[in-house]
Amino acid sequence: MGKTTKSRDAALKAKIAFEAAKGEKTIAQLASEYGVHPNQPRL
Fold first, then answer.
1. Where would I find the H helices in the chain?
2. What single-letter DSSP state applies at residue 38?
3. How far does Cα 31 stand from its chain's mean position?
4. CB–CB of 16/40 below 8 Å?
5. Contacts (Cβ under 8 Å, ≥6 apart) of 26
6. N or C: which end of the chain has fewer CB atoms below 10 A?
7. Extents of the domains making up the chain
8. pLDDT tens across 1-43, in order?
């Protein structure tokens, strides 16, 4: 069996990107909040 990946819709990706651009939280904080790895290239 292969790895399963979670699919995230464009609206969620945009929300995370906007929050990252604001700079109020670190990438590590956002990754933890949304359950993704901080070095993950695509959400």
1. 10-22, 27-34
2. T
3. 5
4. no
5. none
6. N
7. 8-38
8. 566 656 667 888 888 889 999 999 998 999 899 888 888 765 5
